[in-house]
Amino acid sequence: MIKSIRHLSGTESEWDTHNLVVPDGEISILKTKGGNKKIKIGNGTDRFSELPSLTGDAVKTDAIAITLMHGKSYRLGVAAALELSFPDVIDDDYYSEISFDSGTDATEFSVSGSLRLTGDDVADEELLPKTNYHYTVFIWYDGDFQGVVRGLPND
Fold it and tell me: Which of 14, 78, 89, 107 could form a disulfide with 52 if both were Cys (CB 3.0 to 4.6 A apart)?
């Protein structure tokens, strides 16, 4: 016999109206205006709007410090604070990539050492994350650490 399980599901306006505390382990679905779906899993304490969306292997983090190793891609979820550093020994062909989400409070973004950034939401070569944005930063070494930032609003 085929059985089905129902999950909490609603449109953006429905979730805005009924911003429920999602029970621990409960799957909840947001149907976006563009027809896409975002999945969130409840923790029993946070309201739907406070939960991170699952994208790949995303996780919700309060603060994280990462040494960006050569050739590695880092996929994070919502990060309240993010501190990047670089390895002591740098390969001539060094590159790294990091993606993260800035939540309802903008991520505090910092770098140990020198990193010259260009791109979205960059001022004076520093990234100033906006709230509710997804960022990808591609970094390479060419005598100095340089990087380009792309930011898109989270729906």
Answer: 78
Maximum CA extent, the chain: 64
**Full set of structural domains in the chain with CATH:** 8-50 (no CATH), 61-153 (2.60.120)
- Looking at residue 52, the DSSP 8-state letter turns out to be P
């029993």: which residue's tokens? 44
What distance in Å separates the CA atoms of residue 114 and residue 135, rounded to the nearest whole number? 19
Both structure tokens of 75: 């996929």
pLDDT of 58 > 60? The answer is no
Instruction: Tell which phi-psi region holds residue 121, choosing left (phi > 0), alpha (psi between -120 and 50) or beta.
Output: left
- What is the residue whose two structure tokens read 């591609």? 138
pTM over 0.85: no
Q: Which of 89, 82, 87, 81 is nearest to 67 (CA)?
A: 87
Report the alpha-carbon distance of residue 21 to residue 17 in Å, rounded. Answer: 13
Choose among 40, 93, 42: nearest CA to 70.
Answer: 93
